[in-house]
Specification:
Helix content is 38%, strand content 13%. With 430 residues, it is of the alpha/beta class. The protein folds into two domains: 8-66 and 323-427, Aspartate Aminotransferase, domain 1; 68-319, Type I PLP-dependent aspartate aminotransferase-like (Major domain) (Aspartate Aminotransferase, domain 2), CATH 3.40.640. The strands form three sheets. The protein has a seven-stranded mixed sheet, with helices on both faces. A four-stranded mixed sheet has the order 1-2-3-13. The protein has a three-stranded antiparallel sheet with strand order 11-12-14. A hairpin with a 4-residue loop joins strand 11 (351-353) and strand 12. Helix 7 (186-196) packs parallel to helix 8. The longest helix is centred in the C-terminal third of the chain and has 22 residues, at 324-345. The two termini are 27 Å apart. The relative contact order is 0.16. Bound molecules: pyridoxal-5'-phosphate (PLP).
Length: 430
C-alpha cells in the first residue's frame, strides 16, 4: 500500500453513511477507506493504495474486476437499452442456459438480488404446500428479509427449533414460523421435521453453509427426508452457484433440490438474482392465476434487466471454458493448505475451512461442523487476524466472513496472501 490519507474522505463517509459503510462491512474508522477502481484481483482507493481483493464484492466478481469481456458486453448493451422489465433476447438466452446446466431448473425467473431470489423461492415452497413454516439452519444466511436473518448470528444459544431474529424490526409472527435446526445434524433435523411436518412448507439450506462444508450424507439425507414427506427443499446457491461447479452445489454434491436461488457470481459483479425449480411449483407465479389461493406475486423492476443479463452471459461464457473449475479449486486448495501449514509452523490451533475458491480460518481446536462450533471459537482472534491482513493490503470483510478468490487471482496473489498471513500471525499475541 502507498499514498497519503486525506481524512476528509473518511469524514464524509462517516457523516453520510451509518458506520461509514454500505452495510455489514465493519471496519474501524482508522482502516476505513473510499474505493476508486479495480482491475483483475486488485482494487485501488482514492488515496492511491492498492489492495489484493479477497472480498470480490462478497463473491460477485468471480472473474475479477472490470473484466474486459464483461465490460464489452455491457457497453454494447447500454447503447441499446437499460431495462424494460420484460422478456428480452438476453434474458431468454440466460434462462435457457440456466435450465441447461442447473439440475433442478425446469423453469426460471430473474430478480435483482440474492435476497429477492430466496424470498420468492420461500414463498413458492410455502404456496405449493399450503403450509406456513420454514426450516432453516442456525447461522445460515439467506438475504436480509425476515426469514434470512432468523438465527443468523444468535448470541444466546437456545433450544432447537426456537428462532431468534438477528435484526430488529423483524416480524414476530415470522419468528413463530421459522424452525431452526443444526447444520450437519441429520438426526436432530429429522426429529424437528417429523414433529412439524404438518405445518412445514419448505426447508432452505446453504449447501455449503457460510464456509462450512456439508458432512458426507447430510445433503443426501435432507433430500430423502423432505422428498418422502412432500416438503420442498430449497438450495440457496447465491454463494455456491457457478462457483463450486458450473452447475453449482447441485452438480458438485450430486443432490437436486426442488427449488434454488442464485445471485452474486452469476452476474460477474452486476446486480442479479435468479430462482428456478420444478415446473409445477414455479407455475404458481403465472399471472393468469392471480386471485387463486396459491398464487405467488413476483414482480421485480430490476429483475432480468438486459444489462445484468449481458454481464451474466459474458461471465458464464468465460466460466464455461475448460479448466475454469479446476483452476478455481486449485487456487482455493493452495490458499487453505498454505494457511494450515503456517498455522502449524507457528503452533496456532485453528481450522481452515471452505471449499472451491473460498476459505476461512476459525481459531478453535474442534472440527467445525455448524454455527455452534464457530460460535465457540476465538472469534476475537479471528477478527484481529482479518484486520491485520487488511492493514497489510488484503481487502476483506473483517466481519468474520469468508475469503473469496477469483479467476483473475494469480499464484503470486495467493503467495502474497500467505506471506502476509504469516507476518500477521507472527505478531499476534495468543
Ligand atoms: C447464501 C446467501 N444467500 C443470499 C444472500 C443475499 O444476496 P444479496 O446480497 O444479493 O441480496 C447472500 C449474501 O451474502 C448469501 O450469502
Amino acid at each position: 500500500m502507498a499514498g497519503n490519507k486525506d481524512t476528509s474522505w473518511i469524514e464524509r463517509s462517516f457523516d453520510v453513511f451509518p458506520g461509514g459503510s454500505l452495510g455489514e462491512f465493519n471496519l474501524p474508522k482508522e482502516l476505513s477507506t473510499v474505493l476508486s477502481h479495480g482491475k483483475g484481483s486488485r482494487i485501488y482507493d482514492v488515496f492511491g493504495r492498492e489492495y489484493i481483493d479477497y472480498s470480490l464484492a462478497w463473491g460477485s466478481a468471480i472473474l475479477g474486476h472490470a473484466h474486459p469481456k464483461i465490460a464489452e458486453a455491457v457497453t454494447r448493451q447500454v447503447e441499446k437499452a437499460f431495462n424494460f422489465s420484460y422478456v428480452t433476447e438476453q434474458a431468454l438466452e440466460l434462462a435457457e442456459e440456466v435450465r441447461r446446466v442447473i439440475p433442478c431448473a425446469e423453469k426460471v425467473r430473474f430478480a435483482a438480488s440474492g435476497t429477492e431470489a430466496t424470498m420468492y423461492a420461500i414463498k413458492l415452497a410455502k404456496a405449493s404446500t399450503g403450509r406456513n413454516k420454514i426450516l432453516k439452519f442456525e447461522g445460515s444466511y439467506h438475504g436480509a428479509h425476515d426469514y434470512g436473518v432468523m438465527s443468523l448470528f444468535p448470541q444466546r444459544l437456545v433450544e432447537f427449533p426456537l428462532a431468534q431474529p438477528t435484526s430488529a424490526g423483524t416480524s414476530q409472527a415470522i419468528s413463530q414460523e421459522v424452525l431452526i435446526a443444526p447444520f450437519n445434524d441429520l438426526e436432530k433435523t429429522t426429529h424437528i421435521i417429523e414433529r412439524h411436518r404438518d405445518q412445514l412448507g419448505g426447508v432452505i439450506v446453504e449447501p455449503l453453509q457460510r464456509c462450512t462444508p456439508p458432512e458426507e450424507g447430510f445433503l443426501e439425507g435432507l433430500r430423502e427426508l423432505t422428498r418422502e414427506r412432500g416438503i420442498p427443499l430449497i438450495f440457496d446457491e447465491v454463494v455456491t452457484g457457478f462457483r463450486l461447479a458450473y452447475g453449482g452445489a447441485q452438480e458438485y454434491y450430486g443432490v437436486t433440490p426442488d427449488l434454488a436461488a442464485f445471485g452474486k457470481a452469476m452476474g460477474g459483479g452486476f446486480p442479479i438474482g435468479a430462482f428456478c425449480g420444478k415446473a409445477d411449483i414455479m407455475a404458481l407465479c403465472t399471472e393468469a392465476n392471480l386471485g387463486s389461493e396459491n398464487y405467488v406475486w413476483v414482480a421485480s423492476s430490476g429483475g432480468g434487466n438486459p444489462v445484468s443479463m449481458a454481464a451474466s452471459l459474458a461471465t458464464l461464457q468465460a466460466l464455461r471454458k475448460p479448466g475454469t473449475y479446476e483452476r478455481l479449486h486449485e487456487l482455493g486448495n493452495t490458499l487453505r493448505e498454505g494457511l494450515r501449514q503456517i498455522l502449524r509452523d507457528q503452533g496456532i490451533t485453528a481450522q481452515v475451512i471452505g471449499d472451491g475458491p473460498i476459505g476461512q480460518a476459525i481459531f478453535t481446536e474442534e472440527k467445525v461442523v455448524d454455527y455452534r462450533s464457530v460460535f465457540r471459537s476465538d472469534r476475537a482472534k479471528g477478527r484481529r487476524f482479518m484486520l491485520g491482513l487488511f492493514e497489510k493490503g488484503i481487502f476483506l470483510n473483517p466481519l468474520g466472513t469468508k475469503l473469496y478468490i477469483s479467476l483473475a487471482h494469480t499464484d503470486n496473489d495467493i503467495h502474497a496472501f500467505l506471506e502476509r498471513s504469516r507476518e500477521v500471525l507472527e505478531t499476534m499475541e495468543a
